[in-house]
Amino acid sequence: MSFKAILSCGNRLLLLTAAWSVSGCSIGYYLHSARGQADLMARRTAIAELVADPGTPAELRQRLLRVRAAREFASDELGLPQDKGYRSYADLERPFAVWSVTATEEFSLAPLSWCFPIAGCVSYRGYFDESKARRFAEGLRRRGLDVAVRGVAAYSTLGYFDDPVLNTMLHWDDARLVAIIFHELAHQRLYVKNDTPFNESFARVVEEAGMARWTATHGEPGELRHYLQGRDAEEAFSQLVASARTRLADVYASQKAAPEMRQDKSRVFADLVAAYEALRASGAIHDGYTAWFRQDLNNAHIAAVGVYQQWLPALRKLLQQSGGDLGHFYAAAERLAQLSPAERVDALQGLNPD
């Protein structure tokens, strides 16, 4: 996830100090974002320093050694940025780094967007303080909108700051932790404004290629298998949500009266939960998604999942056409990034396997 949007708002306000609102960002939101980022950065300690400190708990030292090795591997073997990102650690003393708010109309799957000078338009609004996120969400609910609030363990400033590894990320196993470092550094390698599906698909392909290479030389027994199982479970989850999305789109396009659409909407969500429970009972998907399905699901939860990896097959094929060489793949992806949005879609559709 890129969270540069809340920072972009602040940068613009520093230049336009007389303005009370810029690009939809209030002064209060800017101050909250600036304070939250400043607090996070102030908590950083170099990983090298923590590893050398005899007072560092043994378990934390081992996780940080793993992170340090993966970070060096990312630059040395994967051609990812050689900067100070993910070379420090910060304990935020909370379970999530930020809380993200997504909202839609009652009969729409299109999320509201908030636009920022540098990052462009994004379909969420992020807060460092959970209570502020929930107050903002409640205001949206009072407007009759479907709203979802979710905790986010990690975010990237796309190299704008030297992002640290966070305590919130250490709840993940080693495979996922290493994979997210590759993923977020890939966003720094290439990021196209206003094209989340391309950005996320690109970062996932780099992540996958990185994990295959990493586990071949540095992985623990079964680490790649465990990573691939998690990836497959995520894709099964995405397919479930995509199926519900399609049905909901048909409901909202039906032009039925509102009470009837509400009934149809409820039926789709009930069927979605039932489909998940059936998959879970069969062992086709693990229990990690149970908490998500036990929420009072609405359009905003569907929108928050997003169809963000629609170009995975195309970009996997591009890597294959590049002979598996990441340098050639990056160059080819950069050529796609330079196209207009319509041209890029056409090129990616041409790459999609039949």
Work out the helix count: 14
Count of DSSP E strands? 10
Contiguous low-pLDDT stretches (5 residues minimum) are 1-24
Radius of gyration: 21 Å
Query: What distance separates the N and C termini?
Result: 30 Å
Helical content class:
55-70%
Strand content: 5-15%
In oligomeric terms, what are we looking at?
Answer: single chain
* Outline type: globular
What is the H-and-E element order? HEEHEHHEEEEEHEEHHHHHHHHH
Question: What topology, given as strand order, has the largest sheet?
Answer: 3-4-10
Classification by helices and strands: mainly alpha
Layout: helices, strands, pairs:
Layout: H1 4-15, E1 21-22, E2 25-26, H2 27-42, E3 45-46, H3 47-52, H4 58-78, E4 88-90, E5 98-104, E6 114-116, E7 120-122, E8 125-127, H5 130-142, E9 146-152, E10 165-166, H6 174-189, H7 196-217, H8 223-252, H9 258-282, H10 290-293, H11 299-305, H12 312-321, H13 326-337, H14 341-351
Parallel strand pairs: 4-10
Antiparallel strand pairs: 1-2, 3-4, 5-8, 5-9, 6-7
Helix pairs in contact: 1-2, 4-6, 4-7, 6-7, 6-8, 7-12, 8-9, 12-13, 12-14
